[in-house]
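Hey,
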Amino acid sequence: MSGGAHRSAPIHQLEVSRIFEPLPAPRSRLCQIGAIKLQLSGKHVDTSNLEDRIARKRPAMSEFMFQVTLLASIRVKAETQAEAELKLRAALEASEANLGMLDDTPIVVPVEIEGDLDLIEATENTGEE
């Protein structure tokens, strides 16, 4: 950093003091903003717009999109594993999943199946209960 930057700091502070001293601005807030920003915004500041000029600006909201892989175990009744897979694929491809709420908005997503279905368990129903 050049030595000139240190020498100009008092100049910025004098200019800011001259601009903001007559105004009812909280000194603690002015210190948080910094002399150079105050000097730039101070060229157009008066008692009617002081609050807007020194107000804390909220950061703009951004939107982020995530890809999420969800796993589910679903029981399907069928005579064969192949039939069960077909029934499950048909049902899921025609549906959407309601995953709850986020920021007061429902999370409803289409269901997509990639790859093979993994069989976890098969039980044979003998018809006797």
